[in-house]
Write a structure and sequence with these properties.
The protein is α+β, with helices and mostly antiparallel strands. It is built from 12 helices and 13 strands. Helices cover 38% and strands 18% of the residues. α7 packs parallel to α9.
Length: 408
């Protein structure tokens, strides 16, 4: 579940009486006297920047600079006093409009950027990948203001003189600064680091690919790759086994279940005694194919004799109820159970048969390449949800494997 981002200014009981919010708590208006620095007031966002977010950015539009334009924009920790401008307290960071200085934990500023006034849009970016805060003015980056920042922070804005009025944009509207291009540049840096990591000898990778091809019975491609890797390539029992598995799985995917059962028994007599659940899955698929053909009387007779009688493997009751449910609908193809008639169902049963055939030969139930992918996905998910903020910028499929989702 994604963590919620800052979306408005906080209007809890701690909001200073010198400030007023408006427009869905995005605007802040100064209502104090502004006689001295003691009249300053700040407000922070309703939520902190989640630590798992690599790059957070928001913008503030100066609707009016008021009397003096003593406006501060930035970030602060939770317990920072809201009676001073951003940057004047420890764990507070601010860029001020009247002098263009940056302030970090003290009232003495550092020359940083230009001043800002009515009509200007100031952006504040907390880069948690590289641990710094930077600002933009009217869509142009001003560079890093505060390096070495690594703490839980809230967006904040502070006002000091009458008439000052600002409005925040936390992403509900397009930003003036091209933050997307900035994030993409950061992403390219992360990907370059990943790509520079040494990988094992090329033969190891190609053997992983070969194991995947042989598992899924891509006979021609597997044979071609094997010729490059091994003297003689795929021959004898290895090739015969793959061709046999391909034939049997193809029969299932074509809906020819009786032939698949018969030829499986002939080729590997021990198969169904070792894996009775696979035989049961094939029989359930046979029932589905009979429903597809439309002979209800024969289908019900088959169901009674093959699915409901005798000793059945675990989970059989649920499986039978599922496929028999097709008979309750005049048009099974338009029913809530229509997924049972889709090609994906055939392929799932086909893969069950394939795995069982491989198991009898002492081979793993899934290819090592698939195991590696699952491990990479698990590591990526764990990193993205904990301390590995850079992982949030990278999509395992599209960025690392070149797998693109279907177009909308």
């Amino acid at each position: 579940m994604a963590e919620k981002l800052p979306s408005a200014w906080s209007v809890d009981a701690n909001l200073s009486s010198k400030l007023e919010t408006a427009t869905c708590d995005l605007q802040v208006i100064y209502r104090g006297s502004g006689k001295s620095d003691a009249e300053a007031a700040a407000v922070k966002a309703n939520r902190p920047v989640p630590t798992s977010v690599p790059i957070f950015y928001y913008e503030v539009r100066v609707i009016s600079k008021g009397r003096d334009g003593y406006i501060g924009i930035g970030f602060c920790a939770d317990r920072v006093l809201m009676s001073r401008l951003p940057g004047w307290e420890l764990h507070s960071y601010g860029y001020h409009g009247d002098d263009g200085c940056s302030f970090r934990g003290c009232s003495r500023g550092t020359i940083y950027g230009p001043t800002f006034s009515t009509g200007d849009v100031i952006g504040a970016c907390y880069n948690q990948l590289e641990h710094y805060i930077m600002y933009t003015k009217n869509g142009v980056s001003l560079g890093i203001a505060f390096p070495g920042v690594n703490e839980l922070l809230y967006p904040t804005v502070g006002l000091r003189t009458p008439g000052e009025k600002v409005e925040a944009n936390f992403g509900t509207k397009p930003f003036v600064f091209d933050i997307d291009s900035f994030v993409q540049e950061q992403k390219r840096t992360v990907l370059a680091t990943i790509q520079s990591t040494p990988i094992p000898d090329c033969d190891v990778v190609r053997r992983l690919v070969l194991s995947y091809l042989t598992h899924h019975c891509y006979c021609g491609t597997a044979a071609a790759l094997a010729r490059d890797l091994e003297k003689g390539g795929l021959q004898g029992d290895r090739l015969d086994s793959m061709l046999r598995r391909k034939q049997l799985c193809s029969l299932v995917e074509e809906g020819r279940i009786d032939e698949a059962i018969r030829l499986s028994q002939e080729a590997t007599p021990m198969l169904f005694s070792a894996f009775p659940e696979v035989l049961f899955s094939l029989k359930c698929q046979k029932f589905v194919e009979m429903v597809r053909a439309g002979n209800d009387e024969a289908t019900m007779a088959y169901g009674r004799s093959e699915l409901c009688g005798g000793e059945q493997p675990g989970g059989a009751t649920e499986a039978v109820q599922e496929v028999v449910g097709l008979l309750a609908y005049p048009d099974p193809q338009a029913s809530p159970l229509s997924y049972l008639l889709e090609q994906g169902r055939r392929k799932a049963v086909s893969e069950e048969l394939n795995v069982a055939l491989k198991a009898l030969q002492g081979e793993p139930s899934r290819p090592p390449l698939t195991t590696l992918y699952c491990q990479a996905a698990a590591v990526h998910k764990e990193l993205a949800s904990t301390v590995g903020r850079a992982a949030r910028l990278v999509d395992l499929d599209s960025d690392m494997l070149g797998i693109r989702g279907e177009s909308a």
